[in-house]
Amino acid sequence: MKHAMKFSSLFTSLIAVFMVANLEKPYNYFQGLPSHQVSWFTWEEQVFNRSLKKLQKHEPLYEMNLNNQIIQLISVYKTGLKKDHLESLSKQIIHESKKYNYDPLFLASVIITESSFNNWARSNKGALGLMQIRPATGKELASEAQLRWKGKPTLFDPKSNIALGAYYLNKLVLRFGDLGLALEAYNHGPSRLQRYLKNGYRPKRYSQRVFRHYSGLKSPSR
What is the pTM of this model? Predict the structure, then answer.
């Protein structure tokens, strides 16, 4: 009987250790994000619901404060644009976010991750502008979104770039049904992501970077 009790106690201890170890994994795995924020569902809930309820209710004070917060955020970065463009840039982020039901701070987080708000950013793969869109992709998206395409200069126009980037991200959300996967598709390309998934690999590095930026922007209001 004593042996049975010792075995039971040992087994219970092992189970406890296993549970604690697994509870700690999300925090360590996401390198600093608290455990209640790590699931894709939690992030999607924040991105699509948290601030939008107030925006959809047309609370002027909330939107004004949000606009000021984004302007202050943008002013930290070297945008390559004149200062009088900052407010219109902020309003464009809010406008496109409303259109696709994003938290504007989430869309700002994508822009930070892509270009650090450098309007003239160019990647080594030919992606241009704030949301780093390749000209071939931009031309296709412009046709779908009924936005006038003027070649590469379109992607250096902040309003057009954000409109196309937000449209593209929403298109990927609808295609993959998962915000994390949509972000990875935005970064890797949807075809490459499909190949990764087919081979049993789900990339997470890019989406985690976006979520870390988003977490940082949301923290002052918590």
Answer: 0.77
